[in-house]
Design brief:
The complex is a heterodimer of chains A (109) and B (111). Chain A is mostly beta strands. Helix content of chain A is 0%, strand content 61%. Chain B is 0% helix and 50% strand. Classes of the chains: A mainly beta (109), B mainly beta (111).
Chain lengths: 109, 111
């Protein structure tokens, strides 16, 4: 079993829909990261959080430390949100990131 | 503020050739790492460093060498390129508990 599990693996939605991507982990962490990768593009950090909730524009990230679960929400989704969204957790004494497999999101106009 | 600068962006090598992927950061980050990304797979850690003079192996280190002589630079060397090393490579840096910053990626093809 992977230490970081994301769901769904693929998600297709219509423009304007509310999007939720989930991340569950099985290890102790110091922080959880959400990142975005556009097709053929680089990787950009969206959020780093260790508790509670963070919001940036139409993106909201939440984490429940007790349940070892995080969600990334996108409100009023737009085709430009189409990308792979990756969850990663920082764990252990060597500060490594443990990566989820990513969720491929497609927003249709 | 340049962030993480990774070069080259594209490279084609013949089997058996060697090359170095360059990575430099100007944020005084202690932690630097190299990943490879293959189709349908997540990022896999090749090597990492927690400070100048300190490096360690990640999940897939075979065929790659690294060194960290300065805080800023963390080059990745392919010793004798093989087709199995065809991949997209990313360099990343961060403070030990901080947000990760990534280079633009290097698309490497070994023929």
């Amino acid at each position: 079993k992977n230490e970081v599990e994301q769901s769904p693996q693929n998600l297709t939605a219509q423009e304007g829909e509310f999007i939720t991507i989930n991340c569950s982990y099985s290890v102790g962490i110091s922080a959880l990261h959400w990142l975005q990768q556009h097709p053929g593009g680089g990787i950009v950090s969206l959020f780093m959080l260790s508790s509670g909730k963070k919001k940036h524009g139409r993106l909201i990230a939440t984490i429940n430390i007790q349940e070892k679960h995080s969600s990334l929400h996108i409100t009023a989704s737009h085709p430009r949100d189409s990308a792979v969204y990756i969850c990663a957790v920082r764990s252990g004494s060597n500060y490594q990131l443990i990566w989820g497999a990513g969720t491929k999101l497609i927003i249709k106009p | 503020n340049a962030g993480v600068t990774q070069t080259p962006k594209f490279q084609v090598l013949k089997t058996g050739q060697s090359m170095t992927l360059q990575c430099a950061q100007d944020m005084n980050h202690e932690y630097m790492s190299w990943y490879r990304q293959d189709p349908g797979m997540g990022l896999r850690l090749i090597h990492y460093s927690v400070g100048a003079g300190i490096t360690d192996q990640g999940e897939v280190p075979n065929g790659y060498n690294v060194s960290r002589s300065t805080t800023e630079d963390f080059p990745l060397r392919l010793l004798s390129a093989a087709p199995s090393q065809t991949s997209v490579y990313f360099c990343a840096s961060s403070f030990k508990q901080g947000e990760a910053f990534f280079g633009q990626g290097t698309r490497l093809t070994v023929v």
